[in-house]
Amino acid sequence: MLHAFFPSMLRRLAGCALSAAAVAGCAGDDSGRRAIVEIASAQRELGDMRRLQDGSARQLAELQSRMRGLEAETAGLAREMRSTAAGLAEIQAALRARGGPPAESPAAAPEAARAPGAEPAALPPVAQPPEPERLFASAQANLRAREPGQAVLELTDLMARFPRHPLAPAAQLWIGEAYSQQRDFRQALIELRKVVEEYPQSPQVPEALLKIGLCHRALGEPGGASAAWRRLASEHPRSEAAARARALLAALRGAARRSH
Q1: Is 234 exposed, middle or buried (0-12, 13-18, 19+ CB in 10 A)?
Q2: Residue ranges of the chain with pLDDT lower than 70?
Q3: Which domain holds residue 60?
Q4: For residue 48, is it within any domain?
């Protein structure tokens, strides 16, 4: 509405300026000059209003872009929570596949049911989870506790000893996440690329590509971030990570336009 108003007002001011010039010729220089000065002042005020409107529009666009970025970050946090839950489910599945411990330990017989003088039966030892699952669960706990250094040690141990275990791709992904928590984004990139290169069929690959882009963004490398997110959106378009990648790409393009 204001954009339509400005040209009309400027045309009216121009007409007034011509009228003022005519008045100056007829009625005297002083009154004509005052009218021209007042019109010039009104024109400046209109110019200030236009600049203010343009600035407000830019601020609104920036706020909208930031809101989209925050929505993408929130979706990412929710996805990471789901990824943690999926990791726990993988542990449980691996335990079941290896004949893990029963859900409940058998209850001891009541004292009254024992024969007089009989020794109480010893409870069977509680079975421990296999080593890969134990290492993975411990590393996850350390990451949640913001102890990424210890998590890296445990996950690296798991990868060295059990490189073909079903948990290996998730472990490699979380090694990259642990380095990201330490803000060692260069090392995080190295570890995350191993997920994509060594486990190309793993369901962890979309998340790895998303995190690769985030590392590039943190390093001030928008080209690398854009390439990773475009690859994710192209190769895994139906994944949750791809939805977030598309939002991040839109925010990246908006930031690039504003910088020019």
Answers
A1: exposed
A2: 1-29, 31-32, 66-67, 69-130, 260
A3: 32-94
A4: yes
